[in-house]
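Researcher: Sequence recovery benchmark, item below. Answer with residues only.
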């Protein structure tokens, strides 16, 4: 997958909720875009009163205002990539879906591995945010089926272990084989590339390393394709916003012409450094943020 005419600095939009402590959501996405040499923009879906310890309150601006923000960006700026995070409610999901359709996205895509047929429409990465690291819900239970119906619009989805279980309709996986089987089911059913993130796995194989697997949807007559990427597990509490940051980084690298397969090792090396260097930050008393600029400030 590549854009037809990549700008030297790509324009990348995050559509997500906020984290006033700067570690997750929109704030993490913007840092992640910058760390990967993209011009970051953002449209807020939800204002979240949260910190490194948990979520206190969520304020949802009217969806007419969400649409006004989306139109203000797309009426003026050519987008190379979009990263979607917290959507929150069914109403927000359908507002974003309607806006995407004006950009040339359709609910069903004939080709799922890279959309070479889709001309210059932006690459779309969806992080199906449902529950924060703290355990607080960020998506209404009633909106889960709307989120599942939204999946085929994305080029890549990046669920963690509990999110993938919900999308696949099963129990959370406890080892890689179970996780990959669920990702295969979701990829084939919705014809979307799935990055199955293994950060939450706790089996013997997950003690010293973290496994992330790219699972490509099976086209009729084609062999199933999966690619596994391991990186060292960093033993730290500072994992607030890792999922947001990884999906944003992948959107930025895709906008610069990377395939998922070439982007993911770059992103994992960057995440390893960002988790290691998080110890230099002194932000909050719970799950602290990662250090997005570890490599830049070295
Ligand atoms: N302790 C860790 N050490 C190294 N990489 C990690 C660690 N925790 C998470 N990651 C990486 O961060 C990303 C997000 O992981 P995960 O925890 O599975 O999702 P989420 O943050 O959405 O809950 C993945 O690419 C994963 O490999
Ligand atoms: C607004 C917002 N979006 C997403 C997350 C999930 O964060 P994590 O990457 O730690 O699961 C969050 N805590 N807040």
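Model:
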């Amino acid at each position: 997958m590549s854009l037809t005419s990549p700008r030297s600095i790509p324009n990348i939009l995050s559509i997500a909720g906020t984290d006033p402590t700067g570690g997750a959501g929109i704030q993490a996405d913007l840092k992640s875009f910058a760390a990967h040499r993209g011009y970051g923009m953002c449209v807020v879906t939800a204002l979240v009163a949260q910190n490194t310890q948990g979520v206190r309150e969520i304020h949802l601006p009217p969806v007419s205002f969400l649409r006004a923000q989306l139109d203000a960006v797309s009426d003026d700026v050519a987008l190379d990539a979009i990263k979607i995070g917290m959507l929150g409610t069914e109403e927000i999901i359908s507002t974003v879906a309607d806006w995407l359709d004006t950009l040339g996205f359709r609910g069903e895509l004939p080709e799922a591995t890279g959309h070479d047929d889709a001309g210059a429409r932006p690459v779309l990465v969806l992080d199906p945010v449902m529950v924060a690291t703290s355990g607080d819900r960020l998506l209404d239970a009633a909106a889960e089926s709307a989120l599942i119906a939204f999946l085929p619009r994305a080029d890549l989805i990046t669920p963690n272990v509990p999110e993938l279980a919900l999308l696949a309709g099963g129990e959370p996986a406890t080892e890689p084989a179970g996780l990959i089987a669920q990702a295969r089911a979701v990829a084939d059913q919705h014809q979307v590339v799935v990055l199955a993130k293994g950060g939450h796995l706790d089996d013997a194989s997950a003690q010293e390393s973290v496994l992330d697997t790219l699972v490509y949807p099976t086209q009729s007559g084609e062999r199933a394709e999966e690619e596994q990427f391991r990186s060292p597990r960093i033993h730290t509490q500072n994992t607030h916003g890792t999922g947001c940051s990884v999906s944003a980084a992948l959107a930025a690298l895709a906008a610069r012409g990377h395939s998922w397969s070439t982007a993911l090792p770059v992103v994992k090396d960057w995440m390893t450094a960002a988790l290691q260097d998080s110890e230099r930050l002194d932000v909050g008393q719970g799950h602290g943020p990662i250090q997005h600029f570890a490599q830049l400030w070295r």
